[in-house]
Amino acid sequence: MAQESKARKRNGKGKSLPIGLGFIGHFCDANASVADVNNGRLVRIRPLHFDWKYRPEEFKPWKMEVRGTLFQPLLKSLIPPFSLAYKKRVYSPNRILYPLRRVDWDPNGERNTGNRGSSRYVRISWDEALELVVAEIKRVIKSYGPYAILSQSDGHGETKTVHGPHGCARRLLNLLGGYTLQTRNPDSWEGWYWGAKHVWGMEPVGQQAASLEGDGDNIIPDIARNTELLLFWGCDPETTPWGFDGQMASRVCYWFTELGIKSIYISPDLNYGAAVHADKWIPIKPNTDAALQLGIAYVWITEDSYDKEYVATHTYGFEKFKEYVMGEEDGIPKTPEWAAGKTGVPEMTITALAREWSSKRTTIVHGNGGPGVRGAYATEFGRLEVLLLAMQGLGKPGVHQLKMIEWGIFEKGTTNPMPVGVRNPNVIPAFRGGMFSSDVSKVKQFIPKCLIHEAILNAPISWYGTTLLDAPVENQFIKYTYPAEGCSEVHMIWTDTPCWITCWNDSNSYIKALRSPKIEFILAQHPWLENDCLFADIILPVNTKFEQEDISVDPMGGQFCTVLRQKKCIEPIGESKSDYEIVCLIAEKLGLLDEYTSGKTIEEWIRFGFETSQIQDMVAYEKLEKNGYWVVPTDPEWQKRKPRLTNFYEDPERYPLKTPSGKIEFYAQNLARYFPDDKERPPVPHWIEKGESHDERLSSKRAEQYPLLIMSNHGRWRVHANHDDITWTREISTCKVRGPDGYLYEPLWINPSDAAARNVEDGDIVKVFNERGAVLGGARVTERIMPGVVYMDHGARYDPIVPGELDRGGAINTITPHNTTSKNATGMAVSGFLVEVEGVNLYELRKKYPQAFQREYNPSAGLRFRAWVK
Amino acid sequence: MARYGMVIDVTKCSGCYNCTLACKDEHCGQEYPGYAAAQPVTGQFWIRLVEKERGRYPKVKVAYTAVPCMQCREATCIKMAENGAVYRRPDGIVIIDPVKAKGQKQLVSSCPYRVIYWNEEKNLPQKCTFCAHLLDQGWKEPRCVELCPAGALTFGDLDDPESEASKLVASGKTEVLHPEYDLRENVAYVGVPKKFIAGTVAYGDTDECAGDVAIILSGPGANAKTTTDNFGDFEFEGLPDNTAFAVQIEAKGYRVRRLRAKTQSDVYLGVIKLAKITESTRIGKPG
Questions:
Q1: Cα–Cα distance between A234 and A366 in angstroms, integer?
Q2: CB-based contact A779:A737 (threshold 8 Å)
Q3: For the residues A174-181, what does the mean pLDDT come to?
Q4: Element (H, E) at A326
Q5: How far apart are CA A342 and CA A377, in angstroms?
Q6: CA spacing 20 to 30 A to A842: which of A476, A605, A614, A716?
Q7: Is the CB of residue A782 less than 8 Å away from at least one CB of chain B?
């Protein structure tokens, strides 16, 4: 690289600027990269070579020598495809170039709220936009009080610090007297957060590897040395880690295979990890994992092949669990035959898996998301997993719950299964957005993200828990209501995260809420004209991080932690501004600018971030600024870190878990105490065939009309709703399916037998539907999906044919279940539900809905900005 | 002078498409005079990833084979080019001159690997340059290689015995993708997908997976033996195409099963149930 920069200097052109391209959206960055810029244009995006400005001796690469192999970090970051191809996102023809007003929204007359999602937009000036916004904020507060404004400001996307992409508005709204907060759900963790936490604590989210007490510290080298079998349970290490950590997970999987550790993938689909790493694929019907787990427990109990001593000394309530498994409670022994009927996994495979597991040191691997943990009653799956691990001596060397994502999350240094640095820097104090439990204590009224539609359409409502991901388990026993005492209902939404439709539960119902006359004003700020933006009344253009100065930390790549002092690479596109700058403009109009900024300039905030980063004494700011990045040296003592769970394994009395008994609870005492009558999440985890919240099994009467189970995961070629317009990924056959009309449809995986039964061929355009609505997709007829199951990634860009009913883009969340995980578990259930699939006649559809089909569209990037703008 | 080449290890490819995307990031809409005109925004894949679904449910895997220009020493494109529009640099890289090659559509079909693309707008054939414009600036490797997270692409001087690429070739593990073309390619492969024969064995009397059962494969030029794992699964990987094999399954106390399989595609024989030898079968009655 030194040679190259010399060459560049000789040619007298271009700059190479470090930048983080992670998509967590807040707190910590990822995917440290380098942008090559020339003549004000982004030329290329490259990995960051850690040794570009520093010698390896300075940052001290770690080494793992195990079973005759050597595993060590590369000297470059392992960025994923959408970080690499992000140039297409920056220059997307879908960028919002200037402020927009919905054509038929008149704040002084008819607001036409029912036209949201159908009406187009006109360009307005920044001055006009700011005046309209400020007038609406004042009017709403005057009419209803400050709590009538809902701040929707949370989600995954570009990670910025000072320019805080999520929640900049909240600090201003606080200055105006408060607001209603949309709280962040522990999404992709539902089963662990609402289930496993009651079994083993593992604050804050119920996962070993993310435990703040270090239960998962250094478990990857431990697994490498001791584990014989890995169960990738609904886990795709080649998909979900990409936006958050890059591709180190992939390297670790290859290494595990090299070490001779067997990898079994349990999932309805042969996911991308299984496609290249699996020694065996065990297909399972979506959201039936709990039945498989119970079948395995039955084998162990009847064959006496579990660790009885561990169960006696480390767990609580096993007898009640055993009674349930053996059928003493309900007359149904949970035999492999019974489990086979529910799961579609052959009885002999269930028995063999149980025997294989009990005879080998086994670790379960996750990647967040996936088919198992995001469905109805996912609590039971999350809890049973811990119980099965406990029956095989959880915490002993080689027996863990690993996850291949978010290594080092929460920036506390205690959540990393990989080697760590000498420090755990963060720049959170400079973050101008944010979402912490402490935020909730400051607001009088909040609504969980998965209940927004319920709150707007069916208030008053109540639920349990703030749902904030860092809330302790006790919080799940507190009941909250909306509207809160003394607070108004919501009449205005201010969103900087307009992706509810693509990412949350039953979003067709959410669309009804957005079109309600009760919601008088919707303000959206976003870089791209997509998804929920189409329901806003005023849209403000945000720029990408290439267009701003900032500072961030990339702690999760699994190789090194880097601190990035990111320079402005290119000038803002169109009239776009950062989220922070936009809120500053609004604050200024309200006469609150100084209070809002605390009198600091952006440069001063960046500097403040550095000064509070915990590495301020290790590197000079001037050096960081000049080089653009700094690599935290590996902790020379990293090998001494031991997983806390191993302490529990060795001495459970001295190192208790955070449960009432201090042990792993087969019978969850807290659930028994607080929810004694809950049949959907009883103290001992159960198989829930159906309940008052959900009826999504093949045994349902609904299955006569909707006989397929659909699974949905986080997208291979997206991070949630991000990146769906990247031209080059859209050319990949697993990313989009080209229809006869030239439109690129979202793929729907379907097994050849199910396709044949419906006269569907590969490449056909199909309708995926249930009583909640329909989306179009392009059939991918493939052996990679189980018969009776179809699969569609979530997050495809919404392109309504009939808003709230029929979508062309393939936003599958429009038809996911409405209710929460279960009655008292306030998560969302967005995978494993009933649908039917049929071929569609595009020509008839086009005739019926000419307006929707005539929107300006280009297959290379999808819908154009002009599709919605007059 | 160097002879630049690449070794592509299919067994290490996770299918992330970073190679294809890096190439597009470098070449789409960006021209490098003397080396290459700009690649169109869509439609060309100077390093194409061929994605092959192998086997049938539930024994399925995916092989990803990256296919760039092979930088052949007997390049047909050079032979088919008029007025020297395609030439080999002293370092072995084959370049389509973006000016001289204008209008020479015959070059697209000259390449049996189909890695020359036609740019309709520019009336120009185009292909991978190994990012020669970057190598000439001092880069050590093309963009696709730099972006590969798995180390599946190794770039180097094949005439330098110390280069990693040379060492891989010298290891004897590599082959060219299509030896039958006889083009003396400078791109070699490890683990080119062949065919597998796999199956799952179960005991017919107990309906349990039959582990540790001997499986014998025989066929022209390939005799192999394996045992089933605890799920009753067995697999013979890396078999030649279009070849007839016999698979013999032997478990003590059970009748021997013989099956035939032809590797027109990857073969999954499904669940094979073994019949227990009983008194009646022992005396020769039909089992």
A1: 7
A2: yes
A3: 93
A4: helix A318-326
A5: 15
A6: A716
A7: yes
Residue whose entry in the numeric block shows the structure tokens 């001087």: B157
Residue A238 sits at the chain B interface (C-beta within 8 Å):
yes
pLDDT digits (tens, 9 = 90+) for A201-236: 999 999 999 999 999 999 999 999 999 999 999 999
Give the separation between CA A584 and CA A159, rounded to whole angstroms. 19
Q: Are strands B195-203 and B267-274 parallel, antiparallel or unpaired?
A: parallel
Cα separation, A752 vs A762, whole angstroms: 9
Residues of B in contact with A755 (CB under 8 A): none
* Tokens describing residue A699: 């045994």
pLDDT at position A761: 98
pLDDT over threshold 60, residue A3:
no
Looking at residue A439, its pLDDT comes to: 64
Cβ neighbours of A194 (radius 10 Å): 30
Q: Are A511 and A534 spatial neighbours (Cβ–Cβ below 8 Å)?
A: no
Residue A2, pLDDT score: 45
Spatial distance between the Cα atoms of B29 and B35, rounded to a whole number of angstroms? 14
B61 inside 8 A of chain A by CB? yes
Contact A8 B137 (CB under 8 A): yes
- In this prediction, residue B282 has a pLDDT band, given cuts at 50, 70 and 90, of low
Nearest CA among A47, A48, A37, A49 for reference residue A84:
A47
Sign of the four-CA dihedral A718, A719, A725, A727: negative
B126 at A interface, C-beta within 8 A: no
* Dihedral angle of Cα A457, A460, A465, A470, to the nearest 10 degrees: 50
DSSP B228: -
Cβ proximity of A227 and A392 under 8 Å: no
Both tokens of A105, joined, read 């929204």
Residue B245 pairs in a beta bridge with: B261
A749 in Cβ contact with A782 (< 8 Å): yes
Using an 8 Å Cβ cutoff, are B79 and B69 in contact?
no
Query: Which single residue is written with the structure tokens 């109009």?
Result: A589
The mean pLDDT of chain A is 95
Cα–Cα distance for residue pair A550/A427, rounded to 1 Å? 11
- Considering the entire predicted model, what is its pTM? 0.97
Beta-sheet strands, E only, within A84-187: 100-102, 121-123, 149-152, 180-183
Point out which residues pair with A862 in neighbouring strands: A858
Q: In the predicted model, what is the mean pLDDT of residues A351-365?
A: 98
Is residue A715 within 8 A of residue A749, CB to CB? The reply is no
Q: Is 60 exceeded by the pLDDT of residue A783? A: yes
Task: Report the chain A residue with the minimal C-alpha distance to residue B268.
Answer: A783
Q: Cβ distance B79 to B90 under 8 Å?
A: no
Is the pLDDT confidence value at A748 over 70?
yes
Q: Which amino acid is at A188?
A: S
**Of chain B residues 146-205, which have a CB less than 8 A from chain A?**
146-147, 149-150, 202
> With pLDDT > 70 as the criterion, what percentage of chain A qualifies?
97
How many angstroms separate the CA atoms of B8 and B69, rounded?
12
Q: Give the mean pLDDT of A603-626.
A: 97
Q: From CA A293, how far away is CA A336, in angstroms rounded?
A: 10
CB A189 within 8 A of CB A373: yes
> Which segment of A346-350, A854-858, B51-55, B94-98 scores lowest on mean pLDDT?
A854-858
Rounded Cα distance between A704 and B193, Å, is 42
**Alpha carbon distance A693, A174 (integer Å):** 36
* Dist CA A89 CA A545 (whole Å): 11
d(CA A712, CA A372): 10
Q: How confident is the model at residue A433 (pLDDT cuts 50, 70, 90)?
A: confident
Measured distance CA(A345)–CA(A500) in Å, rounded = 34
Mean pLDDT in residue range A485-504: 96
